[in-house]
Amino acid sequence: MKQFFQTILDRYISDDHKVDNSSYLYDTLVKKLPREIRDRLNDPDLLVKGSMGQGNKTLYPWVSILNKNITTSTQHGIYVCYLFRSDMKGFYLVLQQGITYFENKYGREKYKIAELISNYIRNEIDDLTFSKDPIDLHASKGSLGYGYEKTTIIQKYYRSGELEENVLVEDLNKMIEIYAFIIKHFNSNKYEDIVEEILDYERIHNAKSLNLDVDEASKVIQENLNEDGTEPYDLNRQLNQVEPKVDTSEKFKRITNPIPKKIDYLKKAKDDAKTGLIGEKLVLDYERNRLLNDRRLEDYADKIEWIASKSDYYGYDIKSYDIIDNEVKEIHIEVKSTKSKVDTKFQVSKGEVDASKKDKDIYFVYRLYNINSIKVSFYRVRGEIEDNFDLDPITFMATYRGPNIQA
Fold first, then answer.
1. Annotation: CATH topology of 2-205
2. Label partner for 328 (CA 20 to 30 A): which of 69, 77, 288, 353?
3. Angle subtended by helix axes 99-106 and 110-123, to nearest 10
4. Domain ranges in the chain?
5. Phi and psi at residue 216, in whole multiples of 5°?
6. Which residues, 6 or more positions from 245, have their beta carbon under 8 angstroms from its beta carbon?
7. Weakly modelled stretches of the chain, pLDDT under 70
8. Angle at which helices 2-11 and 33-41 pack, to 10 degrees?
9. pTM for the complete prediction?
10. Edge-to-edge strands of the sheet including 238-241?
11. CB proximity list for 390: less than 8 A, separation 6 or greater
């Protein structure tokens, strides 16, 4: 491998500027070096290709290694690649993405999106063999080489005249291991689906505002509720605050919270979702009115956010404001609603429990029940969920720990 790389570095600039498939340089870059790499890896899933351009020679020749289960083209997907600098003073071994995919899909935002995906993948790699710093191909902005620079995930640089065969081989094998590790986590998903999953997470995680005021959010919820025609537009529910647990009882459960003989799980899921939306709408309206009726808080009414419309990731449904320790502070509200006529047990997620621990001073649970009536009862409690409610283990998540080896 060493001699092939050095030959390319030594001859690339001085050779004819046209691509000549009969030249020694072409034979080395496009045929001999890829064949050498292919033989060393000996993996039928890996394709090895070399290129020096078409017509005129490219400033940035390359040899790529692609897992055909992810991609068969350097224009798309993730692959391993040797990239040569335009001044031929050295080359890089990189883990890279195809810039053409981002250009076709995202246009002007191609570099921004490509870097975002690269950053995510880069931060998930713990290996210290390779650098996470940007590469420098001496490329002009907007050129193909500039795109290569923006899509590189990890890299190692090799300087002309200082190449060592054993280092080249060891580094290649290590990079292929990392490549395989990433592909394993793709779980047979298409590359473009993986990109969208990462982007969706980033959009949710870094979202600053919904750009919806409370009236608009309430309207969106009402439109969702009315899709099946079962929720009248003129139904004017109101929240009636009560003391926590005053109605709680384990008696007469068949009346207050009847269980059907055979559960229609699809219908139950739909009913539960509808109940949740009704509750969130009521709390949004309640919070807006509460803030507007308090001179210290009235300016914050238009800053209320319906967080649940973004994602369940945050562990709460609504961001609002309240006076805490004589200061106006942001509060996080988790809404729990039920059609039951009395306060009954309800399910909480690990994310909600964790969020209540992290933000215990500003975390509130609004418990709504008798949700189908005109006068909906509710109470609110502040602090950690486990401090305010008794939690029963409902679901245990299991991860295989490996073989149970006994002495």
1. Metal Transport, Frataxin; Chain A (3.30.920)
2. 353
3. 130
4. 2-205, 214-388
5. -65, -40
6. 343, 379
7. 203-220, 222-235, 245-269, 393-407
8. 160
9. 0.59
10. 238-241, 375-382, 363-369, 327-337, 318-324, 305-306
11. none
